[in-house]
Amino acid sequence: MRRSLFAVLVCLALPGPSRMRAQALVPVNQDSSPASPDATFQPFKFNMSAKDAPNDGGGYIDLEWNVFPLDSGTLETFAGYRVFRASKREGPFDSVGFTRPSGPQDSALSVTATYTDSVRDGKPFFYYVRAFGPAGFALSDTVGPAKSSAQWFHTRRLNFLLLAVLFGVLLILYIERAKKGKMFVRRIAGLDAIEDAVGRATEMGRPILFSFGLSVLNDVTTMAALSIFGRVARKSAEYATPLLCPNNDPLVMTAARETAKQAYTEAGRPDLYNETNISFLTSDQFGYAAGVDGIVMREKPGAVFWQGYFYAEALILAETGHSVGAIQIAGTTSIEQLPFFVVACDYTLIGEEMFAASSYLNPEPQMMGSLKGEDFLKAIIMILLIVLAVVGSIGVILSGAKGTSPLSQFFAKVVDWFTQV
Amino acid sequence: MKREVPLVITIVTGIVIIVTFVIPHNPFGTLQDRLTNWFIIVSGFTTLLGLDSLIQYHLVKIRDRRKESGYSIVLLLSFFITFALGLYSWIKFKSPLEPISPTGWIYNFVLLPLQGTMFAILAFFITSAAYRAFRVKSLESTLLLLTACLVMLARVPAGNWIWAQIAHLIGAVFHSVNGNQLAQTKVLSEPTNWVLAVPQMAAKRGINFGISLGAIAMSIRIILGVERTWLAS
Lengths: 421, 233
Known about the structure:
The complex is a heterodimer of chains A (421) and B (233).
Chain A: H1 2-13, H2 16-32, E1 49-52, E2 60-66, E3 80-86, E4 94-99, E5 112-118, E6 125-133, E7 136-139, E8 143-146, H3 158-180, H4 189-204, E9 208-213, H5 220-238, E10 243-247, H6 250-266, E11 278-280, H7 285-299, E12 303-309, H8 313-323, E13 327-332, H9 338-344, E14 347-350, H10 352-361, H11 365-399, H12 406-419
Parallel strand pairs in A: 9-10, 9-12, 10-11, 12-13, 13-14
Antiparallel strand pairs in A: 1-2, 2-5, 3-4, 3-6, 6-7, 6-8
Chain B: H1 4-22, H2 28-63, H3 70-93, H4 102-133, H5 139-155, H6 157-173, H7 179-184, H8 189-197, H9 199-224
């Protein structure tokens, strides 16, 4: 009786709209909340805001408010926040969602809770939240109107756009420069060895095996591997050595067939092209490994090329290739598998060397220029890394771990700009 | 024409994808998802191409009575039996993935153990590859051997046990040294963490930079039409 009287008094003490809300919301709370509190918590400043969600295609409003003091992450004292929405300030308000921060909060004023509401664009909406628990509830002020709209530019992706434009301009500049004169590219042993490997397989009277691993066609690594495959196919056509290519992905198989067909035609030996040698095996990872291992053990290829993206099957494949005495040339952008290939294979194209393969094998000015542009950007990144490491370190030395010096703040801003997406 | 049309499609699609990344407004914002869905649909159809290739390859092997064509018979029989049981499971159990269905049984009691077996073989291959890699031939390979031993010992319980025994032995020989206290020191884990966090991470990040820039350069080359090696015919 005393608690009910207290609740009535508190409701009367609340300002107009909030009082209306509190009265209107009791049934909603009974239906949707884990408890039926009949008393209000201590008054609390939610500082709630409702804004159009930034950098999206519309349809969302972001809500943010200070976390409630009882929000310590325990259900005994606090249940969460229920979000209410109306198209008019005076209501009627409907419950549109529930949220609660996942972990304990240290300070109600320094940490905020958020909720993103899905709405129709261009229509104004008003919001408030109800913080509740077994012991009672508290209501925020009504905020709004907030309208959602679609944006024409993603401001947090400006870094991406600027860097892409810079990189594009650099590539075009270097391509133009390459047209005027010859450019130096260091020797890549793995690519130089392609002819030797094919020649060795020919001398031994054994076939050549090429595997794209578990690559899929929409991966740039596969594109790079396809250009190496084209060169291998051309050499195998010139030496009249069978080329086997078991595939994990039907799309890659189709692309490989087209590439091989073209290479055999260019070499003047379209009659040697055998479509069934470039076949689909299975999409299963270890099924593929078992299948390729079986082919290696049965056919005993003289040269094996592991070019593409590989996972745990990398060493299983490479060790089997080693066991039949094949010369092995590997290339992958999978950093985790690189050490295995380095150990088990005769030559390994490490990461970027794969992407340089097409330029290296077709040294046209456009291709060489793009390689040089890439190197120039790499040099810029290296200088930037060194400068930022020095700036960040000096900033920490000057201000300690708190990061209050201007240098630390500058460092944090630069890092934030580069990492925002 | 056979080269130009795919080239134009690639250039337009590449530029549109870059544009959609910075313009969230419709129709650009949802275009990437839509194109991805198209890709998934096309990929689905290419599975039929893959199956056609697989069956043809093995039928030709059986027809020509090539060496070890018995494996091809086993493969084709397995394929058609699994396919038939899949259809039966679909009709009888409403889903071929139902665990009590015949295909569920094949998956749980044939496919999974076979996959596990293949994965387990990796342990033996790692041993044989490590044996070759860790042979002391030069200063670099010696450093590699020592570092690998350190990291491996720190990652297994036996490493800590071995160090505890050594520490107690030192304590027993030199009375001024407290063996128990020495056993508690992180002789293996601290240097290992440093190796993983500093030199190894630096090398990995260096390679990562190269891969990322190489991939970007390759993508730009493809979008600008400079890179045409993928355009076979």
